[in-house]
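Explain this fold:

***
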Amino acid sequence: MNILELIYPKTCGMCENISKSYLCNKCKLKLRRILKLNTTQYKDTYFNLHTYLFKYEGGIRDKLLKYKFRDYSYLYKFFSEIIINNCNLKNNYDIILPVPIHRKRKQKRGYNQSELIAKEVAKNTNIEYSNKVLIKIVDTVPQSTLNQSQRMENVLGIYEVINSQNINQKRILLIDDIYTTGSTVNECSKILKQNGARTIDVLTIAKD
């Protein structure tokens, strides 16, 4: 145990009790009962596969809302640990990218929730990580406030790829927190494909 852990001991992201890891054994058993780990292959999207671990409901929904909107940024360790323990990612991808948020929203929130998870997963799977490839250039209204058709329109033309040489012919894992209609990740995947990506798969914590 290092000095930081003595001052700020690890706590389970689910029950918030002090634990040896960010997911205690008791909560691990509880989450195992609701774990879906569902992978769906798509033919009418720019990404190939979508994998999610939970349905967007109950305790997981509560944790994601706290993580995304209520400054519970430390929960990225909790979500990352679940991904690392349940998803076989090594050797399947060349690079991990987070779904970006606009710089204004990041300044207001203080962090990009998908970026924190993506970086931690990459570090623990020895997969290259970058938040300097896919960027959001338009500060749109939140997708959560829109219906399905509005969501599709809201994402058009709002993403851009820079440093495209970093994704040329690479197998990309795109990480986001919640999948609802798929409009956001599909638009991101379209831009990545147009800039030379070989394949794109999507991974989210939950699906609504």
